[in-house]
Amino acid sequence: xxxxxxxxxxxxxxxxxxxxxxxxxxxxxxxxxxxxxxxxxxxxxxxxxxxxxxxxxxxxxxxxxxxxxxxxxxxxxxxxxxxxxxxxxxxxxxxxxxxxxxxxxxxxxxxxxxxxxxxxxxxxxxxxxxxxxxxxxxxxx
Length: 141
Description:
Blueprint: H1 2-20, E1 33-39, E2 42-43, E3 46-53, E4 62-67, E5 70-72, E6 82-89, E7 91-95, E8 110-112, E9 125-128, E10 134-135, E11 138-140
Parallel strand pairs: 1-10, 1-11
Antiparallel strand pairs: 1-2, 1-5, 3-4, 3-6, 6-9, 7-8
């Protein structure tokens, strides 16, 4: 009987501890980001836009899909206020040339449609404000 009470008390204690997980201070408030991406004057059919925190900006990185030239952070998503490096990427539809030094079975990479200065060599920085009106439009030539 005493053993049963100890087991029940132990289980109750564990359940209370699990229930308290996540009750601490939350991270920074996130705000909606959205906008348009055009490539050579037309809406970018598909791609991804990535926001990476710069300097002392809190929060995390985010990758948001681009569809028909538009992107929008998902509900409950978004970014903390601060400065972010922006990179835009889209596949050109074909495979990149196969590297003969790679072992068999290595998947082929897609060709990148977007010029490097907008992705791997990007120096684009945008600042997210503490509101839900963070519209960033990009016209890639």
